[in-house]
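[Automated response] Your request has been received and processed.

Submitted sequence:
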Amino acid sequence: MGETAMLGLPLLDAAQAQKHVTVNEALSRLDAGVAVTADGVGIDTPPSAVDGSVYVIGDTPTGEWSDHAGEIAFGIGGGWAFITPTPGKRLTDGSDGRVYVYDGFAWRDGLVAGSTIGAFTAARLLYVDETLSSGISHVSAAVIPQNAIVIGVTGRVIEEIVGPATWTLGVAGATDRYGSGLGTAVGSYALGATGSPLAYYTDTPIELHATGGSFSAGRVLIAIHVIEISPPVAL
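Generated structure:
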């Protein structure tokens, strides 16, 4: 039995019996191959197979997904079938909304520019929902990654900040780099655009500091807007 060149869709043979089996498999593979949303990206442990589910397999897969790293797995007939992605394939991770592009080497989050040598530029958004700890300062779980260029850091109060009159958003040594005099009411926000793109060469946590009091309660969504670059792969 032959198959198509791009998506590997099974082709009917002359005078083939049970043609519907081949056609249905081809339609299921086509459905998964043109999907724009996956149920998860970078998943190593296969969940129970559900017809119509689509996953991008991680780098160290187990079980039924072993030997299929980086491939697209889709549920069919209570089991799994696989598609090898081609460069330019794009999928959105339905669990968090991030967009991934396969560049011929790996699935890249936020790919802006790729190349045949593996070097790439990516624009990424990192975010965390922070429940503030008591005290004058709070070190966020949101971390600017090593060698990232920061376009800005933003935030939104989603539960009233209790304690200080205002607060600042920044990093150690520059605690108001991304905002000062920020409001404490629900809906207040920080829009901390970096004056000039700023590179960080080590992992750097975001910090919130209280002004005119101490934090005793509150929740803030923190988002870090970054550009990352990567060198060519080792060939």
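Summary generated for your ticket: The chain is about 5% helix and 45% strand. The helical segments are 19-33.
If you did not submit this request, please reply to this message.
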